[in-house]
Every structure is written in C-alpha cells, then in structure tokens.
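Q: How would the structure tokens look for this protein?
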Amino acid sequence: MSANFFDNPGLFRTAVEELPVGVVIVDREKRIRFWNRGAEHIIGHLAHDVVGRMFTDHIAEACDQNGQSLYGENYAVTATLRDGQPHQINAFYLHKQGHRVAVKVHSQAIMKHGDLVEAALVLFEEALHSRESSDASRFGFLDAVTGVPAHRLTRAFLGEAMANMEESRRGFGLVRIRVLGLDEFRSKHGPQSIAPFLRATANTLRQSLEPATFLGRWGEDEFIAVLPSANPVATAGAAESVWGLVTHSEVRWWGDRFPVQAVVMHTVAQPGDKLEKLLNGLEPPHAAAAGRAIGIAQGGAQAGSLQG
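A: Here is the predicted structure in token form.
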C-alpha cells in the first residue's frame, strides 16, 4: 500500500465509513461529531440528521432488556467521558423505524495531550445472532406484513412441538403477544395504518428472543413464541423482557409518535397437555383488566400476563 494512503485523511475516513460496525465520535459535551454508515444501518438515523446533535437527544434511546433507560452517569459513553476508561454494555436501541435493536456498545476515550479526555469513540455492533432461516425453509412461507411464519404455519409448528414433547417427555415455554389498540387506530387512520405497529413488534421480538426460539404470527394482532426451555422462571423472564421492549417501541405516523401497547401471556407446556387448552389459557385478558401483571393458575402449569 502506498504511503499516500496513510497521508490522506479522506481515504482513512472512507475506510471507516465502510466498516461493517457503527463508528460514532462523541465530544466532551456529549455532542455527536461523527456517525458512519454502519451506525446509519444499525440505528436507522442518517449522519446528516444527527451530527451536531446531543447524543442523548432522543436520537437512539438506549434501554436494557426490560425497557429501563440506560442513560445516566453509568452509561458507557458517559462513563468513558468521565473517567477515560473503556466501557462495554449490551443495550437495546430504538431504531428510527420504531423497533428495538440489540447492540453491543464499546466506548473508548480519545485523549488530548495524553491525559485529557477530548471525546469518546463508540463502536456499535449488532448483538443479535443470525436467526436460523429454518422458519422459512421448513415451511417455505412467511407472513407478508411481518416477515415471520404465518398463522397456518405457526399452528403446524406448534403441533410438531406438542408431538415431540410427548415423545421426548420434555416441555417447552410458550409466550403469546397481543398488540393493543389496533382496531381504534385503524378506524381513525385507515386499514394500512396498523401495519407499522405489527412490523415494529415483529422486529423487536426478533431482537429480544433467543435465536433458538420460534416466532410466528398467530392472529391479526398476535404473535406466538415457542421457547426451547421448559423452565418456568426462564419463560417468565423471557415474557418480561419481551413485554418491556415491545412496549418501549414506537411507530411514527405523519410526524406523530405512538407507543406500542401490548399484553404478553406466558406458560410452560408439559407432557400430557393439550394444545387448545394451553392456547385458551393464554387468551389475553380484556385491556381494561386491572394490574400490570396477572398470574393465572392453569392445570399443572403457571400462566401469567403482562400488559401495558
């Protein structure tokens, strides 16, 4: 490689722009000074929309797996600007399209005169492992709106899971997600207006569920997730995480921001259970039901719901 390459800042900038990870530079005042194409791809915001703005200015709101905000003194970027040390966290960023994206965040100080923190170099890397394409290849058909297996195919997978459970005597977790308020929104804004809510929910679910989890469309406003683990604590934890992230997603419609509202039900299937009984036990309660969390005893399993 010629020496001219190393003497040309423009070529270096081009190389950084093309890296398959997000590269962001935040100055001491927490203002964004650089935002490469990798960051554009991962977060959805274009560089010309964010450069010069505050990093915490609702550009890419970060939260943990339960939807709790990560901004503050202990946030990786803030901590690096304060102590000059590298920091790393796993976070869920709000994509410009409204869904949550799982991201590994690495922050490293850029020093001036060897001892003064001038800025933070932040690397974004998508944390989602590639979800196996078996969903599509097994059935050869995906829902056109959300990109997940359609209802008929989801029911076929559930039937297969029930049969395998009886043979192996090993249960599995079951989570049912219903998006709330779509009928009202559609009546006000037209039949096509609910598609962004369904897409945002499906994309957030893809990011928040483990790769081995099957995710499919169940009803017009519902999704089903089949977890490989029969551990009730793990199933409840997955439902809590799903609920927190889905309800911290949003849809932008003609300039307005609408939060996604959902109710999440969960249970564990055990040998001897019947599919219809399990699904009936996961019928989401009426939206007017009181309380954020409702526990429902069902058969030998424990079912529960989260709504908001």
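Residues 151-168 form the longest helix (18 residues).

The first strand starts at residue 22 and ends at 27.

Upvote if useful.
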